[in-house]
Amino acid sequence: MAHWIEPHPTGIYVRPANAWIDPSQPQERALVTHGHADHARGGHRHVWATRETLAIMALRYGTASGTAVGYDEEIRLGGVTIRYVPAGHVLGSAQIILDHAGERVVVTGDYKRRADPTCLPFEPVPCDIFVTEATFGLPVFRHPDTGSEMDRLLHALHANPDRCVLVGAYALGKAQRVICELRARGHHDPIYIHGALERMCALYQDLGVDMGQLRGATGVAAKDMRGAIVLAPPSALNDRWSRRLPDPIAAMASGWMRVRQRARQRNVELPLVISDHADWDELTDTIREVAPSETWITHGREEALLHWCMTHQYRARALALVGREDEEEG
């Protein structure tokens, strides 16, 4: 089936279009699902992606050459009809739909099924081959309600007015989502952000995502951040930068916070299980919903999801793509 699409360690090659999907090495033609660095790399001669993903790539890599593809807009390359539909992962993220020779392939990139105020929701598309991530492809990963996790964050903040809550959140997608979720729950006070988050938050604002009043945390007196929420990259939770904050409650927003050992390793006092990836039930429910003839599994815990597919009479295979580290959640 679909001999015209070939998985390689460096990406998925669409032979009649002479194009690669999310290639890890520079290519002549790249179809990019979203802006995280394990999917979007610099150095390609030409890129097709959503307007938002191209803007993110320009910010991160200075990428100048690219064609913006709107959601549900069709393009054709070498006889392949290509369409981008929302993936629900981060702003601009897309599944790439490929139609050729009477067959349909859906390459999801990364995706989630939970509501996210910063991006459009995942759109299920029935297909012959479904290429799915498996970041949280183990039954132990069942994400709680996002609202309940945000309530825990706000409770910690209000219970400790002389401290601040320092939230570790990845710079692309997670930080902006946490901010918008807080705003949706009525927290309209200024939120302080680490300098490493400022450019991406500004880009989100430019692309129409309203995050309310944000302030740079660098140079602000500790007393002025008491009773405030501060966002920073996960790497900043335990470094010298955080020591100047007013007795911070260390929190982290990640699907990996389901694993208590990971929280302890990072000295996280308030683990928040908030993920931009599908959990186990969402992965398996999505496969049922799109009902593919074959499922290709990559980017994570391939073995467990492969076993689930086989036991539920879904033909499946695991792909060994290189460079697919879980950047966003790790």
Automatic annotation (TrEMBL):
Gene Ontology molecular function: RNA endonuclease activity
Ranges of residues in domain Metallo-beta-lactamase: 8-170
PANTHER family according to UniProt: BLL1145 PROTEIN, CLEAVAGE AND POLYADENYLATION SPECIFICITY FACTOR FAMILY MEMBER
Transmembrane regions: none
SUPFAM superfamilies per record: Metallo-hydrolase/oxidoreductase
Lineage: superkingdom: Bacteria
Organism: Sphingobium yanoikuyae ATCC 51230
Record-given protein name: Metallo-beta-lactamase domain-containing protein
